[in-house]
Specification:
The protein has helices at residues 9-30, 33-54, 57-77, 83-102, 110-128, 133-141, 153-183, 186-195, 198-213, 221-244, 248-268. The protein is an all-alpha fold.
Length: 274
């Protein structure tokens, strides 16, 4: 590869900027974005507001469930992903059923609290066993899959730090809510849970963004596989043409040229920072 073929600093900066933008978009999509916060916060707010006013568990639970369904339909109309909306619908539905069957308004929040605690434990364990959950979630979205585990140690460290941040923050949230569930009343639990809905989430997303912004860009393993497949097709085509022409030396020469071309994408990539 000649000097003219090597990427310039401006090209590298542009590629890094595109990579950062893709990472930011993937980060927002992975955790639901603004509408994800609305889906998880509004139903609980409506429930505690109605229950505080009239102490009617059935009315508060049914209205909250109805609002959750409307939010899911709004996503469907906007042709957005429904995975976050569905999780909200099921969570509110379970909470509404528990609260109405038990007659205890605090049980409306129990499924969500258990989910948060389970997620916190999953984050911590994944970091301990060196498969940080943030990397597992974001890797496919950034087209790097699990390449960060063996080929990009800087991103491995960033994903591990982000996963620890999510786990510890969610554990702290659970440490506040469960004592209120056991010893507080429903309105106290409801208002505190609403207050702890968005701020910890934003803190987790912000810390994840900080860690990844300082990490090396992801390795696009999808592009690598496509380049290898293209090189293999070129190799077969060149060999076939050389063999038809009755020139075996030309076929060997074509193999060598294609091998060099196949290595070029790796040469063009910036090496991961330690």
């Amino acid at each position: 590869m000649t000097e003219d073929d090597k990427p310039t600093s401006a090209e590298e900066d542009s590629a890094a900027a595109r990579s950062r933008a893709a990472a930011d978009t993937a980060l927002l999509e992975a955790f639901g974005g603004v509408w994800g916060m609305v889906d998880t916060t509004v139903p609980g707010l409506v429930f505690v507001l109605l229950y505080t006013i009239n102490r009617d568990i059935h009315l508060a639970a049914l209205v909250s469930l109805g609002i959750t369904v409307l939010l899911a339909l709004a996503r469907l109309i906007r042709k957005e992903t429904l995975k976050h909306a569905f999780s909200g619908v099921f969570g509110v539905a379970f909470g509404a059923v528990f609260a109405m069957m038990s007659g205890d308004a605090k049980n409306f929040y129990l499924p969500g609290m258990l989910y948060t605690l389970g997620l916190a434990i999953a984050y911590v364990l994944s970091a301990v066993f060196r498969y940080p959950l943030i990397g597992v979630l974001l890797g496919p979205m950034l087209k790097e899959n699990l390449s960060w585990r063996t080929r990009n140690p800087g991103r491995f460290r960033a994903y591990t730090k982000a996963t620890w941040a999510w786990g510890l923050i969610l554990l702290a949230k659970s440490a506040i809510l469960f004592p209120l569930y056991w010893w507080g009343d429903a309105t106290q639990l409801g208002w505190v849970k609403v207050a702890l809905g968005i701020p910890p989430f934003l803190l987790c997303v912000y810390l994840t963004w900080i860690f990844l912004a300082k990490a090396p860009p992801p390795i696009d393993v999808i592009a690598e596989m496509e380049a290898e497949e293209k090189a293999e097709r070129e190799r077969e085509r060149a060999k076939a043409e050389a063999e038809r022409a009755g020139e075996p030396l030309l076929a060997e020469w074509a193999d060598r040229i294609v091998d060099e071309a196949q290595q070029e994408p790796a040469d063009r990539r910036s090496p991961p920072r330690p």
